[in-house]
Structure of diguanylate cyclase:
Amino acid sequence: MSWTDIARNGRILIVDDAMENIQVLNQALEAEHDVLFAMNGARAIDIAHNQRPDVILLDAMMPDMDGYAVCQALRTSSVTSNIPIIFVTSLFSPEDETRALDAGAADFITKPVNAAVVRARVRTQLTVKRQSDVLRELTLTDGLTGVSNRRGFDEALEREWRRSARAGTPLSLLLIDIDFFKRYNDEYGHQAGDTCLQEVAAAMRRAAARPQDVVARYGGEEFAVLLTDGPPGAETVARKLIEQVDLLAIPHAKSDAKPFVSVSIGIAAQVPEGPDGAGELIRRADAQLYRAKAQGRNRYCM
Ligand code: GH3
Ligand code: MG
Ligand code: MG
Ligand code: MG
């Protein structure tokens, strides 16, 4: 995206209980953005979670759930908390304004709205949102390998754990550790070790390449792969991981497992029950990794 395009082609959600208000805002925005609508708070929260708009225009006064309550709900969910919200309302006392800011509003527009003002305010928030998206992405990415870092992994695990618990579907965790990596560094040097980590990370991405697969650098020379699969799917990915690392064919003269770089993998899979318990999944995968090491490395255990 070029710099001049950063304030265009956003996904904008308009929330208002009156159709004529939605139409006015839509007319102001539809030429330069993708516009979505909701006519009540519950629907707005639903769309915000599923379609991830870049900016939300929110009517303060609505029956049932008003704008302040919608704003608060969006702020408390990690999926929607970073979406800027512009309040749109006819009466703005200092109290209303304070209340909206307390609820987490980014900006205000007063009714009756002016189309040029709406466009300008939306462009500003869209720019801020896109810049913060880039920064956020950076804070969750490992600089050496380009996969998620530990923080990104922790967020993904919490999110996927809750999602799988709600859906009643399985979640699998693979912990992957490079075999005799200390000896590799000693033999070939730390820089070669870094290159090896990059190549192994790329191999993991090829083995776990579906959009919902999460690949992360969990620690120094340890990786984690999170899958929305049960045991058979997890085992398939583990086999692919070992195969992709084999294909790298990186010589490792000091390994007792084989004369090439190899990995050991511990797998844990379960259908999550309740919001907590992700720590137990990690502990189980780690115990299986320990077994894979003890059984001779270059293998997976579950
Ligand atoms: P095992 O087969 O039991 O896993 O043996 P190991 O030598 O791989 O295990 P250990 O945990 O003793 O050693 C991990 C090594 O990984 C030690 C450390 O120097 C190296 N390491 C960790 N992070 C990095 C990194 O970012 N770059 C490089 N080059 N090496 C790293
Ligand atoms: Mg209204
Ligand atoms: Mg290790
Ligand atoms: Mg190791």
Notes: The chain has a mean pLDDT of 94. The pocket of magnesium ion (ligand 2) is lined by residues 16-18, 59, 61-62 (CB under 6 Å). Residues 115-139 form the longest helix (25 residues). The two ends are 44 Å apart (CA to CA).
